[in-house]
Specification:
It is a single chain. The protein has a domain of 32 residues. 79% of the residues lie in helices and 0% in strands. It contains five helices and no strands. The protein is elongated and about 135 Å long.
Length: 177
């Protein structure tokens, strides 16, 4: 056994025994501190009573609005349950059809892609083979465009040139009139 001093052991000398006076003193201190905390909390609540009351009122109004909204939502769902069920059934049917056709669509896209690749290669070969002819056509188009510009300019300056032909440029002498 441990040796007890007059302060550490209760009467009777058992070190494991607890002094009732110490326990009661500790309990009194704890209760006094708890009462102080409760008074402080009460003061905070009293200081904020108006705000707390407003929050409680708003929460009650919010709860009422949410309850009404849920009732309306339930009514709308109930009214449209048949349409909603049909829509989901149609969606399920449509996705089923799409799933069935996916392989077909993939094959079609692959075929189209291959065709476009082949066409691109063939077009390139065709252009290379016909390059001289294409260049000659472009030169002819340039010459034709120049001629049309000149013709338009003449008609703009001398509208009667279409009937009488192109006139002389510059001023006419008084004698030639």
């Amino acid at each position: 056994m441990d040796a007890c001093t007059s302060r550490s052991c209760p009467k009777g000398g058992d070190p494991k025994a607890v002094d009732l006076a110490e326990v009661l003193a500790s309990l009194k201190t704890t209760l006094d501190e708890g009462a102080g905390v409760a008074r402080s909390a009460g003061a905070v609540i009293d200081d904020n009573r108006e705000g707390i009351d407003q929050i409680i009122a708003r929460l009650a109004a919010l709860e009422q609005t949410a309850t009404e909204l849920m009732a309306q939502l339930n009514a709308v769902i109930e009214e449209n349950r048949g349409s909603i069920t049909k829509s989901f059934d149609n969606l399920e049917e449509l996705t089923g059809e799409l799933n069935e056709r996916v392989d077909e669509l993939v094959a079609t896209l692959q075929t189209t892609f291959q065709y476009l690749q082949d066409l691109g290669g063939n077009s390139s070969d065709l252009i290379d083979d016909q390059r001289p002819t294409i260049e000659e056509m472009l030169l002819n188009l340039q010459e034709t465009t120049r001629n049309l510009k000149e013709f338009s300019r003449i008609l703009a300056e001398q509208p009667d040139a279409l009937i009488r032909g192109k006139g002389q440029h510059g001023r006419k002498n008084e004698e030639e009139k």
